[in-house]
Design goal:
By secondary structure, the chain is of the alpha/beta class. It is 48% helix and 15% strand. The protein has helices at 6-9, 25-36, 55-70, 82-89, 93-112, 123-136, 168-177, 194-210, 215-236, 251-255, 259-272, 280-288; strands spanning 17-20, 43-49, 74-79, 116-118, 147-152, 155-160, 249-250, 297-299, 305-309, 312-315. A six-stranded mixed sheet has the order 3-2-1-4-6-5. A four-stranded antiparallel sheet has the order 7-10-9-8. It is globular and about 65 Å long.
Length: 316
């Protein structure tokens, strides 16, 4: 079993990359592929110890450090008590871990002057994310993108996922064929975390109900949805819609758009204003201000709200 070539994966062996490696099967397979198939030489292996698995967390860190040394790659690591931080922030462990990983990548990116971060997300991860976003109420079949840009601690980072079209079963085959050693994360079998419940319970139940593998159908539906989403975003980038970038949103101009463009314009406006946790429900609440004259204000996540006054919308 072979993973994608460098032509299809878009990874160059002439560039420097940061690579997120947990020590688990997927990230270790990714690192092996970069070393022996893509033949990358300038790699900084990045490992964040989440302190969630007791002594095993320390063993994971040592395993990844030794693997980087064996491959003659540079190594960067940090240790964070994710459970304690999540309690302090009153956020989920999953969200906290993600934020801390991005902050870690930002610090390593600044140190090594490298904005490209390669991650080991694959097709099954994408399907799980699509289902999680769908049932959380996002209103769209959005999942993980092959390439994305984020800003963490003032540092702009490119996240690259060259294995996103590869299924977990293919990675299993690659690992077996190449006799790759990795760390087994027993927490993957626990249903404490939402993603594990989707992976271990929801998807197997859907397979049983429909008597077929539903993951590829979900992936295809997401691909269609994301293409259409990209098309709408491209339309809204034209100069005709430059008014969406302003602090205030014109009700007159919004009312001239069809429902789909209205919703996307509002979503884009809210995100530009750094309103987090915005989904279908919040966008529709804002859209209601276009027609509901009895309401002039709606609440948003984070203690913010949108108010209507003199045919404009603004955020307070």
């Amino acid at each position: 079993m072979s993973l994608p070539s460098h032509e299809t994966a878009g990874i160059s062996n002439r560039k420097r990359y940061l690579v997120g490696v947990s020590g688990g099967r997927d990230s270790v397979a990714l690192l092996h592929w970069l070393k022996f198939e893509i033949r990358c030489r300038d790699i900084i292996v990045c490992h964040l110890n989440h302190s969630l698995r007791g002594r095993d967390s320390g063993s994971d860190a040592r395993f990844v450090r030794n693997l980087a040394r064996t491959y003659d790659f540079k190594f960067e690591s940090e240790k964070k008590d994710i459970r304690k931080i999540s309690e302090q922030r009153k956020s989920s462990i999953e969200a906290t871990a993600r934020d801390e990983r991005l902050g870690f990548f930002a610090r390593v990116s600044r140190k090594w002057r490298c904005k490209r971060v390669i991650l080991a997300h694959h097709a099954d991860d994408h399907v799980e994310t699509v289902l999680m976003n769908l049932f959380r109420g996002s209103g769209r079949l959005t999942g993980i993108r092959r390439e994305s840009k984020i800003v963490s601690n003032g540092v702009s980072i490119e996240l690259l996922r060259p294995l996103l079209s590869v299924w977990r079963s293919d990675i299993d085959s690659y690992v077996k064929e190449n006799s790759i050693r990795y760390r087994e994360d027993t927490s993957n079998r626990s249903n404490e975390f939402l993603r594990n419940r989707v992976r271990n319970t929801l998807i197997p139940s859907l397979r049983k109900i429909f008597q077929r593998d539903v993951t590829k159908a979900v992936s295809r539906a997401s691909e269609v949805s994301m293409r259409e989403s990209d098309m709408i975003d491209a339309i809204l980038l034209s100069s005709e819609f430059s008014w969406i970038s302003k602090k205030e949103l014109s009700l007159v101009k919004l009312k001239k758009l069809n429902n789909a463009l209205q919703a996307r314009a509002i979503l884009k406006w809210l995100r530009k204003a750094n309103v987090s946790g915005v989904g279908f429900v919040e966008v529709e609440l804002v859209r209601s201000l276009l027609t509901d004259k009895s309401t002039a204000k709606i609440n948003l996540p984070g203690g913010k709200h949108v108010r209507r006054r003199n045919k404009i919308l603004f955020i307070e």
